Amino acid sequence: MSWIAAATATTSPESAQQAIGYPSLFLLVLFGALVPVIPTGALVSSAAVVAFHQTAPFALALVFVTASLAAFLGDVALYWLGRRGMGSKNGSRWLEAIRARAPEDRLEQAQAKLADHGVAVLVLSRLVPAGRIPVMLACLMAEWPIRRFARGNAPACLAWAVTYQLIGILGGSLFPEPWEGVVAAVVLTVVISVAPTVWKRVRAAS
């Protein structure tokens, strides 16, 4: 039984967290890309806080790779499902879900920007709160092939992962305890996500 004791001794709580945390982060971000109700940005920031406080040398790099890959695969899968719905007589529930989350005014803006700037709009859409779905629907209506969408979406997912990871690193560096950094990162991501809506309402009221 000595080998069991040795294995137990070499298995640290940190490595156990990593074994559970990275697959969980991947699945949650992937699911959040398909069903846009999960605050995936806050998840990435929180994971970055935890990784910042770990001693593993590649913890932050693994968070970045996991989050960006999951976001990319989720976006491509949702776009593929949307294309299937566009080509079907009865559409699909996925296409209806995309349309339901793309208000008419946001869709018109996305279509105009897509016509003017092309792939560059995809990168910005991932960084602007509630900007991803209208641009994705605009790409569907413009009949972009899935390969073209994937080429533009890859740098968008990388930029998105870097942005929210930097928010997490900032939260982790400001507080000595990981849970304090997680709270700060979540609050900051929520503020960033609601700020455009609040600003728009303030401008409309004034």
Q: Uncertain regions: pLDDT < 50 for 5+ in a row?
A: 1-12
Q: Helicity, in percent?
A: over 70%
- The coarse silhouette is globular
Residue-averaged pLDDT? 79
What would you say this structure looks like, in words?
By secondary structure, the protein is mainly α. Helices cover 82% and strands 0% of the residues. The protein has helices at 2-10, 13-34, 40-52, 59-86, 93-100, 104-117, 120-127, 132-141, 146-174, 178-205. Helix 2 runs antiparallel to helix 3 and helix 4 (59-86) packs across helix 8 (132-141). The termini are far apart.
Briefly say what this structure is.
The chain is mainly alpha-helical. Helix content is 82%, strand content 0%.
Structure keywords:
single chain, 206 residues, mainly alpha, 10 helices, disordered N terminus
Fold blueprint:
Blueprint: H1 2-10, H2 13-34, H3 40-52, H4 59-86, H5 93-100, H6 104-117, H7 120-127, H8 132-141, H9 146-174, H10 178-205
Helix pairs in contact: 2-3, 2-4, 3-4, 3-9, 3-10, 4-5, 4-8, 4-9, 6-8, 7-8, 7-9, 9-10
